[in-house]
Amino acid sequence: MTNKEKALALIGTFATGDTAKAATLLKEDYIQHNLAFGTGKDAFVGAVAGLAQAPVQTTVNNVRAFEDGDKVFLQTVYNFAGAGEQVAFDVFRFEDGLIAEHWDNLQNVAAPNPSGHTQIDGTKEVVDIDKTEENKKLVLGFVEDVLMGKNMDALTSYYDGNNYIQHNTGIADGLDGLGAALAAMAEQGIAMVYDETHIAVAEGNFVLVGSQGSFGGADVTFYDLFRVENGKIGEHWDVIENLAEKSTWANENGKFGNEAILVR
């Protein structure tokens, strides 16, 4: 099995309840960054067993799967034990052929945005594998210049005019849609702040970044997936999750790690 196949098999155990399969895919000292779950192989296998006992079966619908070196990153729709559909980004790090570490972000499924796009539709084809690192560099530049606000004058240089497909639940397509949304938030006194980027993984024309910051005054984590086309940002999906209060954490690993390390 490839690492991508192993990651897909692991999330599949949430639906099948196959604890034995989950155990074969994980390192004993598996590191968990989802703060609602314990860390280690036994904790993951226990979660799978618990879901298998629920009266409503968990469903797992993977939408996109990518690989970058020792990491696999997925976009998936989960419905854990009938609690409601959630869109998620998962990042898995492999070591010696086994899954060693996991990061994620989840958000409830919402209605289509003002342009009619859902959180998961759009382009799926991976191309331009030879431009993976170039595209990762471009997106990291965009995050720093625009999302972190360090060089807003560079905004238009990252886009091909108004050609931009947006999957954020509240924003319409194009730079016009982005500008209108930002203006509306400003009028309401809502600030979206990106403080630090911890994760940057890519395959070809797709780049995923995981960042920490605040939205409307609440501490959040941002996962943004970008599709790059001809050196410009052509499409965007995201998942924004409120950062849980530390008193509620089921592990001490932190959302991204105890140190601010950019994952490449």
Present the secondary structure layout.
Layout: H1 3-16, H2 19-25, E1 26-32, H3 41-52, E2 59-68, E3 71-79, E4 85-95, E5 98-108, H4 132-147, E6 165-166, H5 174-187, E7 192-203, E8 206-215, E9 218-229, E10 232-242
Parallel strand pairs: 1-5, 6-10
Antiparallel strand pairs: 2-3, 3-4, 4-5, 7-8, 8-9, 9-10
Helix pairs in contact: 1-2, 1-3, 2-3
Q: How does this model look, in words?
A:
With 264 residues, the protein is α+β, with helices and mostly antiparallel strands. 24% of the residues lie in helices and 36% in strands. The protein contains five helices and ten strands, in the order H-H-E-H-E-E-E-E-H-E-H-E-E-E-E. The strands form two sheets. It has a five-stranded mixed sheet with strand order 1-5-4-3-2. Helix 1 (3-16) runs antiparallel to helix 2, helix 1 packs across helix 3 (41-52) and helix 2 (19-25) packs antiparallel against helix 3 (41-52). The radius of gyration is 18 Å and the shape is globular. The two termini are 23 Å apart. 33% of the residues are buried. The mean pLDDT is 95.
Quaternary organisation of the protein chains? single chain
Q: Low-confidence segments, ≥5 residues, pLDDT <50? A: none
Number of helices: 5
Spatial order of the strands forming the largest sheet? 1-5-4-3-2
Strand content: 35-45%
Helix content: 10-25%
Q: How confident is the prediction overall: mean pLDDT?
A: 95
SSE order, one letter for each helix or strand: HHEHEEEEHEHEEEE
Radius of gyration over C-alpha positions, nearest whole angstrom: 18 Å
What's the total count of β strands? Answer: 10
Overall morphology: globular
